[in-house]
Amino acid sequence: MSNIFAHHQTNPYPDHPQALERAANVKLLVLDVDGVLTNGQVWIGADGKESLKAFDIQDGLGIKLLEQCNIPTALITGRNSKMVLARCEELGVQHAHMGVENKSLVLAELLKSLGMQEKDCAVMGDDWPDLAMMKNAGLRIAPAQAHLEVKKVSHLITAREGGSGAVREVCDLILKAQNRYDELLNKAKQ
């Protein structure tokens, strides 16, 4: 086995043997929002506007830990939401693209602006609008409740569902694959 497994004797994802190896090369994490950072439910108020979204606090810490390792996170979503903007501000996510119809085009523009290639990013999506964006990513990820067609093209299907720690699971995988997890954990224990 490669040095990726130095601190972790076995691959934490035996059903997805290439996930850890692919995660070692990730320079950017790209996430859909509804169904990935949230459970996919959209609460609509009496005024007809989106009124509530729930985010998992552990997902947020995972995003912050990646940022500490110079691995930024980008959000590309089809919906517009003030709540998502507020969450991005809270987490320091600088690349938030909302109201997007063609996610793969926005991803291509983002990668170009960052001087990266598709193989440099991990993309996590849960439904058909994410398929084109996921197509050429170096690491394609689906949360546990994702649509079957998304799962078919994924290198990894998380154990947890979107909005319930699936993003943190991915962040931990990237940190472990890049030998940063133990270092950050030890800092947290001090």
Briefly summarize what is shown:
The chain contains eight helices and eight strands; from the N terminus they run αβββαβαβαβαβαβαα. With 190 residues, the protein is α/β, with parallel strands linked by helices. Strand 7 (139-142), helix 6 (148-153) and strand 8 (156-157) form a beta-alpha-beta unit.
List the helices and strands and how they pair.
Layout: H1 19-23, E1 28-31, E2 43-44, E3 50-52, H2 57-68, E4 73-76, H3 82-91, E5 95-97, H4 103-114, E6 121-124, H5 131-134, E7 139-142, H6 148-153, E8 156-157, H7 166-177, H8 181-189
Parallel strand pairs: 1-4, 1-6, 4-5, 6-7, 7-8
Antiparallel strand pairs: 2-3
Describe the protein's architecture and organization.
The chain has eight helices and eight strands; from the N terminus they run αβββαβαβαβαβαβαα. Helix content is 37%, strand content 14%. A six-stranded parallel β-sheet has the order 5-4-1-6-7-8, sandwiched between helices. A two-stranded antiparallel ribbon has the order 2-3.
